[in-house]
Write a structure and sequence with these properties.
By secondary structure, the protein is α+β, with helices and mostly antiparallel strands. Helices cover 47% and strands 24% of the residues. It has seven helices and eight strands, in the order H-E-E-E-E-E-E-H-E-E-H-H-H-H-H. It has helices at 2-8, 75-80, 101-110, 112-138, 141-156, 161-168, 172-183, and strands spanning 22-26, 31-33, 41-47, 49-56, 59-67, 71-72, 87-90, 94-100. The strands form two sheets. Strands 1-8-3-6 form a four-stranded antiparallel sheet. A four-stranded antiparallel sheet has the order 2-7-4-5. Strand 4 (49-56) and strand 5 (59-67) form a beta hairpin. Helix 3 crosses helix 4 (112-138) and helix 6 packs across helix 7. It is globular and about 55 Å long. The N and C termini lie far apart (42 Å). The relative contact order is 0.17. It holds the Pfam family cNMP_binding. This is Crp/Fnr family transcriptional regulator.
């Protein structure tokens, strides 16, 4: 996992870095991180997909989808060590590799490369969130749906319409019309 992250950002692997990751499999619909729990891991999706959601006063919001090759976490909780305001749920059976908070902190103490990597991960999360905000303000629901299909078409086809609609900020009926328009 760490090696893939280094490759992604074109950083050298330092011989002194001792890395302990864990591979874990989750079934479809399994909660990886519960809302109100403290996030202890950063994950790499080796196979599968997850959604990030939040439940407030019996109302569900779908904030993001992550697919194979993506790194994910309830990052605010991971960094702040405070309870997560979101939950992370698998969309399909999902295989992940993960590294825990203590291991990451230890790596930061051992290596300038690990510190750089941590900064680059934080920057990529910031860019992704800012792009999502811009997309919500500047793109139509149909454009956002097409973008989502480009990221994970085979998995999105398995996701219930109401969850995708919540992510897009529209009603399920509107998403059905968008899908019908794209087919014709």
């Amino acid at each position: 996992m760490f090696e893939k992250m280094l490759d992604k950002y074109h950083l050298p692997l330092e011989a002194s870095i001792s890395l302990k990751t864990e591979t874990k499999t989750f079934g479809k619909g399994e909660i990886i991180t519960h809302q109100d729990d403290i996030e202890n891991y950063i994950y790499l999706i080796k196979k599968g997909a997850v959604l990030v959601g939040s439940l407030q006063e019996q109302k569900e919001a779908i904030l993001d989808f992550w697919f194979e090759g993506d790194y994910f976490s309830s990052y605010m909780s991971f960094l702040s060590r405070k309870p997560s305001q979101v939950y992370i749920e698998t969309l399909v059976p999902t295989l992940v590799e993960r590294i825990d908070y203590g291991q990451m902190q230890s790596l930061y103490g051992q290596s300038a490369t690990a510190n750089m990597l941590g900064r680059l991960i934080a920057e990529s999360h910031y860019v992704r969130k800012t792009q999502r905000e811009l997309d919500l303000m500047t793109k139509t629901a149909e454009q956002r749906y097409k973008d989502l299909l480009e990221k994970g078409k085979t998995i999105i086809e398995q996701v219930p319409v109401h969850k995708i609609a919540r992510y897009l900020g529209i009603h399920p009926e509107s998403l059905s019309r968008i899908r019908a328009n794209l087919i014709s």
